[in-house]
Amino acid sequence: MANVTAVTREPSSEQELPHPYLLFLGDTVHPGFAKTAFGLKQWAPELCLGQFALPSAQIDLGLPNLRPAEARAKGARALVIGVANSGGFIAASWIPALVEALQDGLDIISGMHARLGDIAELRYTAERHGRQLIDIRTPPPRIPIATGLKRSGKRLLTVGTDCALGKKYAALSIARAFAERGVDADFRATGQTGIMIAGSGIPMDAVVSDFAAGAAELLSPDAAPDHWDVVEGQGSILHPAYAGVSLALLHGSQPDVFVVCHDPGRTHLLGDEQFALPPVEEIIDLTVRLGSRTNPAIRCGGIALNTSKLEAQEAEALCAAESRRLGLPVADPIRGGPAFDALIENCLAAPASS
Question: For the D-glutamate N-acetyltransferase-like N-terminal domain, which residue ranges apply (predicted)?
Answer without folding.
Answer: 60-139
